[in-house]
Amino acid sequence: MIIQGGTIVNENRVFKGTVIIDDDRIIDIIEEEPQRDSRCEVRGAETLNVEGCYILPGVIDSHVHFREPGLTAKADIDTESCAAAAGGVTSYFDMPNTVPQTTTLEALEEKFRLAAEKSHVNYSFFFGATNDNSALFSQLPAERIPGIKLFMGSSTGNMLVDQEESLDRIFSSAGRLPLMAHCEDTEIINQNMAHFKEQFGDDPDVRLHPLIRSEEACLASTTKAIGLAIKHDARLHIAHITTAEELELIPKAPSLWERAGGEAHITAEATVGHLTFSLTDYERLGARIKVNPAIKNFRDCQALRDGLMDGRITTIGTDHAPHLLEQKQGGCARAASGMPMIQFSLVTMLELVDEGVLTFERLVQLMCHNPARLFGVRERGFLRPGYKADLVIVRPRSPWTVSKDIILSKCGWSPMEGHEYQWRVEKTLCNGRLVYADGAVAADARGEEIQFSHT
Q1: Rounded to 5 degrees, what are φ and ψ at 433?
Q2: Averaged pLDDT of the chain
Q3: Among 49, 128, 279, 395, fewest CB within 10 Å belongs to which?
Q4: Residue closest to 339 by CA, chosen among 269, 403, 273
């Protein structure tokens, strides 16, 4: 396949060029030259002319909840990987809070089996830490998983880890595997919830959610996680960071692949939702934007946006977490936390490029290059000869509006309904094959298990 006529955004460069693919790999990238390059003349090759479009590496979403096994009324690997393909996401890392939880080697293996049968794009799975399973870390297949997910603020069964002894064991046992931590202090949250229930009844209004899942709760837990990472020289990636105060704890422009002077390797993720919404959006969207940690005020949203360019934010994920719409009814106590975003993540971030919040090159770093570097993804995340042919083609100035009939997530709704985008995902290629084109996902397309090298 020859993809020509587009503008390539890759490794801090933007240039007109041609991508040549053979089977599942990129074999050449040719910068446009005055005379036609003979390398573009490949006998029998399919040619895609993408004049006016941009060619990017496929997005790696390192934070999703696809709900399978056990919660498939909300979502499953088939439907959510379709939504991923439609959004330009060619690889995802799924979280362990399914039923059963991915906290045993057997449960991990079952997820890989399910994904091999059902996933339309590439896949891997975090292993979940509990208070008593750190002895399994040395047995984990490190070349198959991105890392270990740690809930330091969660009500998901036994996955809440808040015992000091257990946390010490987890941070000391992770080795070279990254620890991705959900940081909220459960005791502070519980105290806040009790206070607001006393004032406003059993289900306080959702607008109080940022005061219950408060800045104090986030900062206390993130501070503890960073202290443990320094103590045990662990690799810590803070999931869905939400506050300006937490960002002050993160070094600017940290190295993703080196540790100088024995300092802890500490990085942070921001989610599309926390970069898009702020406190005033609860008036319009209510519990549809109820997530944990909570979407907070505009000051925090602006701080996260600033962190995209100065290096304190290393990756952008979605925390894609579908619930049925009836489960999103109610307030702070009753409405489920989480929202589906994977289908609209790339086009939402491209709006921030248009607004001048970040550059196009930096967007590609945050959504493609950095997840690959940070988690040690092999041969993906970049447009390079020899790498897997995962890429997405997007067209600017192509307006369209989100409506229910185009939502591919099984839950059937999105907080972006009614929003008009100016960018459009035209085609997504995964392992050299078109998995999304002309508004449709190739039903028989299957992704591959991602391989890792944790050095």
Answers
A1: -115, 140
A2: 94
A3: 49
A4: 273
Contact 56, 429 (CB under 8 A): no
Q: Read off φ and ψ for residue 29, nearest 5 degrees.
A: -130, 120
Q: Which of 77, 58, 57, 71 is nearest to 9 (CA)?
A: 57
CB-count exposure of residue 252 (10 Å: 0-12, 13-18, 19+)? exposed
Q: From the CB of residue 23, how many other CB atoms can be counted at a distance below 10 Å?
A: 10
Residue labelled with tokens 């508004």 = 439
Token pair, residue 270, equals: 């921001």
Residues 6+ away with beta carbon under 8 Å from 229: 171, 179, 235, 236, 264, 265, 266
Predicted TM-score (pTM) above 0.85: yes
Are β-strands 265-271 and 400-401 bridged in parallel, bridged antiparallel, or unpaired?
A: unpaired
Q: Which segments of the chain have a pLDDT < 50?
A: 34-35, 257-263
Tens of pLDDT, residues 328-337 = 999 999 999 9
The token pair at 259 is 């540790």
**Interatomic CA distance for residues 231 and 391, integer angstroms:** 39
Token pair in block for residue 5: 């006529």
Q: Cα-flanking dihedrals φ and ψ of residue 112, to 5°?
A: -60, -40
Contact of 116 with 446, CB cutoff 8 Å: yes
Of all helices (H) and strands (E), which one includes residue 283? helix 281-285
SS3 at position 366: helix
Contact 366, 314 (CB under 8 A): yes
Residue type for position 248? E
From the number of C-beta atoms within 10 Å of its C-beta (0-12, 13-18, 19+), residue 162 rates as: middle
CA gap 336, 338 in Å, rounded: 7
Is the peptide bond preceding residue 100 cis, with omega within 30 degrees of 0?
yes
Q: Which amino acid is at 384?
A: R
CB atoms within 10 A of CB 220: 18
Distance CA 301, CA 303 (A): 5
- Give the residue among 409, 279, 432, 267 at the shortest CA–CA distance from 345: 409
User: Alpha-carbon distance 234 to 156, whole Å?
Assistant: 24
Q: Rounded to 10 degrees, what is the CA torsion of 317, 319, 321, 327? A: -130
Cα 109 from chain centre:
22
Beta bridge mates, 265 = 235
DSSP helix, strand, coil percent of the chain (3-state; round to 5): 35, 25, 45
Token pair in block for residue 231:
């103590």
